[in-house]
Write a structure and sequence with these properties.
The structure holds 2 protein chains of 2 kinds.
Chain A: H1 21-42, H2 48-69
Chain B: H1 5-26, H2 29-45, H3 56-78, H4 84-92, H5 100-110, H6 114-124, H7 130-137, H8 141-161
Helix pairs in contact in B: 1-2, 1-3, 2-3, 3-7, 6-7, 6-8, 7-8
The chains are: A mainly alpha, B mainly alpha.
């Protein structure tokens, strides 16, 4: 008997709630788009002005060290 | 002012996400960068109050958010610039077509109460936990959770009204 293959009745383990479907789709799409929109900016990395700002600290620190050493 | 290498690296690493957060708060890339710069300056001036090993990103977000709340909100009423976002985004991404849905989403985000918007961005886009977001916003975790879920529902209702076919025409007004 080959009917043994159909051991799992498809309907029994399908706890899908069709009512939530549309709202769920919208929520997923909002989540995806929100992250994509945000990541568009994140991907631009660190603009020079901020890298420079923090690099100045290094220079200042180096100066301080030099004056400490002498 | 003494900032060790690790602290500086952590600050640099937080900048991209800090900018994205700032853009979503003030809606304009140029002003967002000013906001980030001011936040970094404040952070540096108060670096002694940062506990090494704690969450640098959350600390900077807190500073930026509080600064925005105290300064930029007043100013925004004076110089509302609804087109700034669009223009800036286009010029900074020459190769990329503006996403229709982003445009729609941005408009919808603007209509959210600020507390809901920042909670949603922190949890839904920046990747902070509700606990971290609560710390950044200075409120209870439960408050964040309810703001996020209200923001989601709010957005869903705003977006489903203008869904699908309503998207395209507005973007064709150029020239």
């Amino acid at each position: 008997m080959t009917k043994q293959e159909n051991r799992k009745p498809a309907t029994a383990n399908a706890p899908v709630q069709p009512l939530a479907g549309l709202d769920r789709d919208i929520q997923l799409r909002i989540g995806d788009n929100l992250r994509a929109m945000y990541d568009d900016i994140v991907k631009q990395g660190v603009p020079d002005r901020f890298a420079n700002l923090l690099a100045q600290l290094d220079d200042r620190r180096a100066d301080e060290k030099e004056s400490d050493d002498t | 002012m003494s900032v060790d290498d690790r602290t500086r690296d952590e600050m640099l690493a937080a900048v991209p996400s800090l900018r994205a957060f700032a853009v979503s708060l003030c809606g304009n890339v140029d002003r967002a960068d000013d906001l980030v710069q001011e936040a970094l300056m404040r952070a540096l001036a108060n670096i002694d109050s940062f506990r090494p090993g704690s969450n640098m990103s959350a600390w900077l977000f807190t500073i930026l958010r509080n600064h925005f709340r105290s300064e930029y909100r007043k100013r925004r009423r004076e110089v509302e610039d609804p087109d700034g976002w669009h223009a800036q985004t286009l010029s900074s991404q020459p190769e990329q077509q503006p996403h229709m849905e982003f445009e729609e989403l941005r408009e919808a985000l603007k209509k959210l109460p600020e507390a809901q918007r920042e909670a949603l961005i922190l949890v839904g886009a920046s990747g902070f936990s509700c606990e971290e977001a609560a710390e950044i916003c200075g409120c209870a975790v439960g408050t964040i959770k309810s703001r996020v879920s209200r923001a989601r529902r709010h957005l869903a209702s705003l977006l489903s009204i203008t869904d699908a076919s309503d998207l395209a025409p507005d973007l064709r007004q150029v020239g």
